[in-house]
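Q: Hi! First time doing this. I have a protein sequence and I read that you can turn it into a structure. Is that right? Here it is:
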Amino acid sequence: MVLDLLENFGKYVALNPFFPLVEAFIRDNKLEQLAPGSYNIKGEDVLLKIEMANGKSKTEAVLESHQQMIDIQIPLQQPETFGLASLASLPSADYFVEKDLSFYHNGQVQHYITCPVGGFLIFFPQDAHAPCISQYTTFKKAIFKVRNM
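A: Yes, that's right. Below is the predicted 3D structure, encoded as structure tokens:
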């Protein structure tokens, strides 16, 4: 997992061959002005989802993980808190191939971290995360889905 400010995203482009596409998109677009929806950046390898998320309490948020894709999550209006756990510490869970998603309803969050507006979090396949923890009922966020290479 990586937490940093968007102005520093360029320091991480060497981590994945598709990250330069994400960096260019962030540089060339004002994410906060994009309408909610899905944006295809490079086929099935790089996608962007702008959404109005529903805020959850720590007890409502559920840990999730992805095997094929890396999440780059960016709060656009308010800070967002995430529950974190190492995938190795969680019980096995069903994997939904079509959504590249596993949920850990009985998983134990090990840490919480808050990402500020102007920041980003990168979640790799080994990083289980419980998103959308917020005091706000709804908030706008960006999620880049990047193929794990």
